[in-house]
Amino acid sequence: MISLFYEGENNVICAYMKITILGNNSALPAYGRFPTAQVIEMNEQLFLMDCGEGAQMRMQQFGIRHMRINHIFISHMHGDHFYGLVGYISSLSLWGRQKEMYLFCPADIKKVLESQLKWALGFEIIYRIIEEGERAVLVNDDKFEISCFPVYHSVPTHGFKFSEKKRKRILLPEKVREYEIPAYFYKNLCNGEDYAAMDGRFVKNELVTLPGHHGKVYAYCADTRYAPEICPDIMCADLIYHESTYLENDQQKATERFHSTAKEAAAIAKEAQVGQLLLGHFSSKYKELEPFLEEAKPVFENVELALEGMEFELQ
Amino acid sequence: MISLFYEGENNVICAYMKITILGNNSALPAYGRFPTAQVIEMNEQLFLMDCGEGAQMRMQQFGIRHMRINHIFISHMHGDHFYGLVGYISSLSLWGRQKEMYLFCPADIKKVLESQLKWALGFEIIYRIIEEGERAVLVNDDKFEISCFPVYHSVPTHGFKFSEKKRKRILLPEKVREYEIPAYFYKNLCNGEDYAAMDGRFVKNELVTLPGHHGKVYAYCADTRYAPEICPDIMCADLIYHESTYLENDQQKATERFHSTAKEAAAIAKEAQVGQLLLGHFSSKYKELEPFLEEAKPVFENVELALEGMEFELQ
């Protein structure tokens, strides 16, 4: 029996999205901060975003259930974003993994892994090579999709967007009774269809349903110079992570090295009208991180430091 | 003026040898324990012994002055002994190193580094490839030498021995005056020569000197099955590190996987008549490490766990 409260199969599962920070530093580890890595939890799956050295240790430390990770994304070929990959892949095999792993990455990552993993892995790695400048949907699930978009760094680099799909329309039980719509058509109503009965009656969808919830969006902007060109790709995201390697007095150095300052990251968040901004990829020259917040807040108020071990939930 | 207390140029500098444990676990990191790496301090120089993932973070944590490391030794081609190498080498370059680095390793390490270090390093790596089964002096300094010897693992693997050279004989000031030996000959006396004067007088060295101090020896026995064959190479060392991946109830597994138990490591220490034994390379299956000591002590009393952050000094 179909409940009158049936909301469509996509309406109830995707309870939340959660981002856990494993490493937040740039090229050199410093002050106990590890190089870049994050885990995104979505629809009961985990996704590993970049994999700097020590990411697997941080996963253990923070209680990440690594066997639930089936997709890994590497933004670019700088070591602070992938030197932990071979160790993690190797450990997965030693832990007995048999399920295939999807790896979305630049072409050279495959060579790096093959030069070091001399023994057979217990599982297959399925590579999806991301080409320079590519903008594409990489994972298309019933309930979410993950896409890549180019950012602007010294080597080909991509950001990634995790988008919960817009949830289906919600039935109004009293209304569907009132309009005498048969239960077999409820699913069509949830998909937005109007009801046209055999006897000629016509019921507009909006009379018997409410709009579905907004699908949450998280965007990871990887390493990039200040680049307003990325704004269309991250427009109105609920949460973005944007690198902020430097503070404002190193703005010129940031530009020269294709990195951003905290203030520039905040300007992007403002222009893209996002909900919240996470700052990370801090230069090893900084011991104290509070100044990053202080410089970003006047431009974009809802900003946080992506500190290691912190979890950011999108409810 | 040469002091009467002149002891020969090699007698006063090499004050001590110190071993700092950076990582003590086997293939899989576990319970906060990192894969294998150590730093040996000798004659005011630092030597990096194996470089598991995260070794550079541990160096920072324990205050190791990485710029003083000019020699790195990799025992074998298993990832838990070298996955941290590319990150460390990369960081050295970013820190501005220009001085060459000597790397003693299996041939494949060079390929691994070259596949990942796409940009030019700021310094040269001078490779000394160690061939399977090789037994050789790798570093021959005035005051110490470092040699390699084969151990018995599932892939070609070497142990390394750090030997302070036997210190020169010590002059007895009153005796050299009594025998009227001229100051220019003191250095020869320290080198063990007898004194033959132009007037026919002959003074046996032992009459005017005392024996020099015993040169300290540390041996790192890498990954190996129980192998009494290695005893001649580490005989009477002051301190050895011997792997003890398993406890006694996994003795068969240890043998199958070319690893040792704590009891077997203790048996090697006993047979080689060493001064002290450090146990390490613990399997990730063990949370508690005390049982390793309990099983080793009845066989060899002077045994310690190589816990991360611990320093072992040879005075």
Topology of this structure?
Two copies of one chain form a homodimer.
Chain A: E1 17-23, E2 37-42, E3 45-51, H1 55-61, E4 69-73, H2 85-94, E5 101-105, H3 108-116, E6 125-129, E7 136-140, E8 144-151, E9 157-164, E10 170-171, H4 173-178, H5 186-190, E11 195-196, E12 202-203, E13 209-210, E14 217-220, H6 231-234, E15 239-243, H7 251-256, H8 262-271, E16 276-280, H9 290-296, E17 303-305, E18 311-314
Parallel strand pairs in A: 3-4, 4-5, 5-6, 14-15, 15-16, 16-17
Antiparallel strand pairs in A: 1-2, 1-18, 2-3, 7-8, 8-9, 9-14, 10-13, 11-12
Helix pairs in contact in A: 8-9
Broad shape of chain A: globular
End-to-end separation of chain A in angstroms reads 30 Å
CATH topology of the largest domain in chain A: Metallo-beta-lactamase, Chain A
**Helix/strand structural class of chain A:** alpha/beta
Show the largest interface. Answer: A-B, 29 and 29 residues
Spatial arrangement of strands, main beta sheet of chain A: 6-5-4-3-2-1-18
Regarding quaternary structure, what we see is homodimer
The share of residues in helices of chain A is 10-25%
The number of strands of chain A is 18
Radius of gyration of chain A: 22 Å
- Tell me the count of domains of chain A: 2
> What is the helix tally of chain A?
9
Can you describe this structure?
2 copies of one chain form a homodimer. With 315 residues, chain A is of the alpha/beta class. Chain A has 2 domains: 17-167 and 213-314, Metallo-beta-lactamase, Chain A, CATH 3.60.15; 170-210, no CATH class. Helix content of chain A is 20%, strand content 27%. In chain A, the strands form 4 sheets. In chain A, strands 6-5-4-3-2-1-18 form a 7-stranded mixed β-sheet. In chain A, strands 7-8-9-14-15-16-17 form a 7-stranded mixed β-sheet, with helices on one face. A two-stranded antiparallel ribbon of chain A has the order 10-13. In chain A, helix 8 packs across helix 9. The A-B interface holds A 27-30, 32, 34-35, 53-54, 56-57, 60-61, 77, 79, 83-84, 86-87, 90-91, 94-95, 108, 111-112, 115-116, 118 and B 27-30, 32, 34-35, 53-54, 56-57, 60-61, 77, 79, 83-84, 86-87, 90-91, 94-95, 108, 111-112, 115-116, 118.
